[in-house]
Amino acid sequence: MHYITTKGILSAKNEMNLYRGCSHGCVYCDSRSKCYNMTHDFEDIEVKENALVLLEAALKHKRKKCMIGTGAMTDPYIPLELQLEHVRKSLKLIYEYGFGFTVLTKSSRILRDIDLLQKINEKTKCVVQMTLTTYEDDLCRKIEPNVSPTSERVKTLQALRDAGIPTVVWLSPILPFINDTAENISGILDLCRDAQVYGIICFGMGLTLREGNREYFYAQLDRLFPQMKERYIKTYGNQYIINSPNHSTLMKLFHQTCSEYGMIHDNEQLFHYLSVFEEKQKARQLSLWDI
Q: What's the pTM?
């Protein structure tokens, strides 16, 4: 871990990254790509020490309320968050200033903050996004070694459901020759149905590989799935978009099953939902003027 100071915390789309780098160890992580210009080891977490000051200043001066998002580049619920509590402190500010919130994570640690998530959702809108890639915990522990396994994530989705907090699942990535099976996709969708998720985002049955994350991914394939790297190189070469040979069949299964279960599965519709701020109306007390 190391500290830096930064000039700003919110992007043009009101996204923030309180940390840079990650200790979850997911074999496919795109954030390792060199195009993001990370100048330190990926596991050496960069902490923006003035992030909370910048966030409060930004919230104070915004003319219109909006959704504040986090988790696109770095999972905010890494183990370090339990020590520093930068996410929790950010949630307090977001609630205090009346903004909405959405987060993308793979960790059950988010349940530590369920009280604040509920308060935000009662006042405006809070949506928790959770990534699911595998139906079975054993495979999950191989490709996402330091993250809550699938069974824990599903329990987290259920706890959020019970707390009245809407959830959206990212079905991504699907690794060719590893988890690109009808059994895996159907199993994940069944779990999503049982947790009553609002919708599922899926860009296709595959993953992306580019300089930086490709090398790490291939090294992990050598370690976990012998000869699998050679199969990838032979099939895909240096392609950026790596689609499963079963892409069309699995996408058909995905859309049909989501329709059957009543889960939204249109990416554009879901991104609109995540981005639109909603301020819930307080119940107006009855006065003498209403009688």
A: 0.94
